TrEMBL record:
GO terms for cellular component: cytosol. Mg(2+) 2 binds at residues 24, 26, 182, 187. This is Ribonuclease T. The gene is rnt. Belongs to the RNase T family. It is an enzyme of class 3 (hydrolase). Binds two Mg(2+) per subunit. The active form of the enzyme binds two Mg(2+) ions in its active site. The first Mg(2+) forms only one salt bridge with the protein. Its EC number is 3.1.13.-. The active site is at 182 (proton donor/acceptor). One of its GO terms (molecular function) is RNA exonuclease activity, producing 5'-phosphomonoesters.
Length: 216
């Protein structure tokens, strides 16, 4: 039986105290300040007692467009979202963010990490929309780092020679269903699987943990 204190500290040791949280956001355009956020999914991660990274828990919301923001028809056609559909069960973005903050803080406490960091594919897009929504909601005690991210597009380009999510997943041996793509729930879980594979592959290659003689 493993030492529980050692087990819960592994994740914080791996990323210098950062708690990686995978996020995918679907929107009504590319401008975080003027286009509405429509869907968000969050996947937390954990480490087993051998130091392998894996998915933990998922939180997913459909979001009501914030009043006054623009909905570009071409963006809605691309992601297949109908913001007026009552079956979406959409909630306001401030309520979704409060739930996400609580969800993430629970993970921070459990893993003894200091601060959450967003993991996403082309992460600046998701980070900008998150920061804009947080500012609109006037929420305090944001658990996420305001500008640092782990970008799986960049990491996949380095490790796999691919930057498109679907191609990176397939190259890494992860199945990808294009018919489910551009759903925040599906893309976040595939991005989480990809990030775990990239981190675990580095460990399998001997790149982690660092030898004690060079660890800082």
């Amino acid at each position: 039986m493993h030492d529980l204190n050692k087990f819960t500290a592994l994740l914080s040791d791996r990323f210098r105290g950062f708690y990686p949280v995978v996020i995918d956001i679907e929107t009504a355009g590319f401008d975080a300040k003027t286009n509405a956020l429509l869907e968000i999914a969050v996947v937390t991660l954990k480490m087993d007692n051998h130091g392998w990274l894996e998915q933990d828990s998922i939180l997913h919301f459909h979001i009501q467009p914030f009043p006054g923001l623009i909905l570009h028809p071409e963006a809605l056609a691309f992601n297949g979202i109908d913001p007026a559909n009552p079956l979406r069960g959409a909630i306001c973005e401030s309520d979704a963010l409060r739930a996400i903050f609580t969800f993430v803080r629970q993970g921070l406490h459990k893993t003894k990490c200091n601060r959450a960091i967003i993991v996403a594919h082309n992460a600046m897009f998701d980070l900008n929309f998150m920061n804009a929504a947080i500012a609109r909601s006037n929420l305090k005690r944001n658990p996420f780092h305001p500008f640092a991210t782990f970008d799986t597009a960049a990491l996949s380009g380095l490790v796999l020679g691919q930057t498109v999510l679907a191609k990176a997943c397939i190259t890494a041996g992860i199945s990808f269903d294009n018919t489910q793509a551009h759903s925040a729930l599906y893309d976040s879980t595939q991005t989480a699987e990809l990030f775990c594979e990239l981190v675990n592959r580095w460990k399998r290659l001997g790149g982690w943990p660092l030898p004690e003689t060079i660890a800082v």
